[in-house]
Amino acid sequence: MNNRWQIEKVKREFQAALNQSSERFRRAIIREIDYLYRKHGSGNLTAFLDEFQRYFDIPAPSRQAIIKDLSSAQEMIAELWQDYYEDAGVLFPDFGPNDFEKMSALYKVDFSKIASDAGKVITNEIRRSIRSGAGYDALRSRLQKRSLGDAETRTLAQTALAQFDNAMMFEFAQQGGVEQFKYDGVLHPNTRPFCREHIGKKFTLDEIRQMDNGQGIPVETSCGGYNCTHWWTPVLDELPKRNVAVKRRKKVEGSQALGIPVSRALNVRVRGELKRSVDSGIRMIDRVHGDGNLGELPVFSFNSRNDSGGFIIRADNFEPIKIVVNPDGPTKELTTVHEIGHFLDHSGIGAPREMSSASDELMNEWRNAARNSSSYAQMVEILQRGYIERPMPDGTVRRLWDIKLRDHFEYLLSDEELWARSYAQYVAVKSKDETLLSQVEYTRSRPIDGMRQWSDDDFKPIEQAIDKLFKKIGWMS
Fold it and tell me: Which of these, 360, 460, 458, lies nearest to 416 by C-alpha position?
């Protein structure tokens, strides 16, 4: 079951993200305690204790970061299970965004419990400091050596994801008529006796629901209990196959597009509003052109404060891994098209596993058009002088210097980025999609690097060069 490997990979990545954020979580708790002491302590730990017990809570940004990461991982797992049952020939009613929201709401982190448990640890340390006559600095030093909810948060978050994984599997299985399930996973030195007893064996759902793992949480969703690394696998061997529409890559019909739709190469593994945005961007590409013979590439959600999306390849063999789109980005549709542009540059236009925009002769005319544009010349000028001139409300012009400015504009002027941005604008122009066109205009209006997208007149020669390129390689009529 390849999907299981992918699901476990999602779990490992989520665990790694939790481990990386653990120290940030602890620091956020310490900052919250510092704030409460400054506001209510007045140098008196006894007075501070009463106010701490009244006001302490897990800081909202720390809660939201974990909630967002957990939700993203749950979305990926839901998509993988749905694909698994479809590929196995098991039909079930459509599982929509509302169903996902209801399911994910059942498996979340109880931050009120974490705040209560962390609060007890901190309260005991404050009382200890009062008894010993120690000051706040000594208290703070001891708190930095204690677990302040970070370890419990990791455990509860990982358990919530594992529970969601099993719950999604059982939800689809029951709708598809699956009756038996195998207790699956790997034995290791720390495997619990409960897991050793059941691993590799098959059970009905009724039998599973009567089991007791001794930890007070359901075996159906939690297997051996908190932090259990095992899972349930549906037994489909004896289930009769049903007629399932096979997904085949059909030829593009209508418009000027020729070849196979680009959409057939993209496995979109996001849900909700982001899925609607990603699907919209992909539909506009299919309106404009087809492609040759691309391999399948997944599209995932990711969270970032700085990046709207990304096209990820392996460092060792340059094989494409995935496209990612930030659900909080302001231009999700345009970002989707932009990142697919990188995918086509890498895997579709010229030699595979090479960025054709950098050197392939097929793209000479496009390359010359992009480098001869006014936008390109403006960015070269900014790169050389090292600052941006920004008009201010009072009519003056302010020079903005940034130590990272040179790196940023070198990146924007690279052939790969020039191609992806011009490709995104090309699809917007050719499809006449209002959302894409408005996002191009939004990008133009940005004060720092608005010239990353071209004006209509400046873009015309680039548009014509891409027209010729796509007709030459058989993607447009």
Answer: 360
